[in-house]
């Protein structure tokens, strides 16, 4: 009887230990993922060079260069600036698609810019796909479609945010 009780207590302790280890591992991975998102994605977005490149893409690229050959056919420095912007959003979109960053957070932060940048770069990306005969920025396109089909207010409301003159969490 004593041996059975000891065995049961040992098994329960082992199961609890395994559960705690799995939970700690999951928590550590989540914290590591969030650190990566904050360090890479947010640092890129706030970087002065990225901001300058994004401003160029949104205000001058279409005026200066046709999308004919895609992004890689653009002359420098337009090629580097365009690629910097497109692939920064592609990276953010990959984190979103893999579930590393919560969709409400990704869309809550980047909703406006994802729409604006995709709509500007779409002809260049489509031409790039033709030139490469391969996908280019598929994750970015997917995030754009999600953003386009989900009003920003709906996302912010789902996070419990309020607006002075607009939405409230209650609808």
- Average per-residue pLDDT, rounded, comes to 83
Element-level helix/strand string: HHHHHHH
Q: How is the main sheet built?
A: none
Using DSSP, what is the number of strands? 0
Taken from the alpha-carbon principal axes, the silhouette is: elongated
Task: List unreliable stretches of 5+ residues.
Answer: none
Quote the distance from N terminus to C terminus: 61 Å
Rg, Cα atoms, Å: 23 Å
Tell me the number of helical segments per DSSP (H or I, 4 or more residues long): 7
Helix content: over 70%
Strand content: under 5%
Structural class: mainly alpha
Q: Briefly, what is this?
A:
By secondary structure, the chain is mainly alpha-helical. The protein has helices at 2-46, 48-59, 61-64, 78-97, 103-132, 138-149, 152-158.
Characterise this structure.
The protein is an all-alpha fold. The protein contains seven helices and no strands. The protein is elongated, with a radius of gyration of 23 Å. The N and C termini lie far apart (61 Å).
């Amino acid at each position: 009887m004593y041996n059975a009780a000891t065995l049961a207590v040992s098994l329960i302790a082992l199961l609890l230990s395994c559960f705690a280890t799995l939970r700690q591992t999951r928590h550590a991975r989540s914290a590591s993922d969030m650190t990566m998102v904050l360090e890479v994605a947010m640092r890129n977005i706030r970087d002065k060079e990225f901001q300058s490149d994004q401003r160029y893409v949104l205000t001058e690229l279409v005026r200066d260069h046709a999308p004919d050959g895609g992004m890689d056919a653009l002359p420098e420095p337009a090629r580097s600036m365009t690629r910097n912007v497109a692939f920064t959003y592609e990276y953010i979109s990959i984190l979103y698609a893999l579930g590393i960053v919560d969709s409400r957070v990704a869309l809550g932060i980047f909703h406006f810019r994802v729409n604006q940048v995709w709509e500007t770069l779409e002809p260049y990306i489509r031409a790039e796909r033709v030139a490469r005969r391969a996908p280019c920025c598929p994750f970015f396109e997917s995030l754009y479609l999600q953003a386009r089909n989900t009003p920003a207010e709906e996302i912010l409301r789902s996070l419990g945010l309020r607006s002075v003159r607009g939405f409230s969490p209650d609808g």
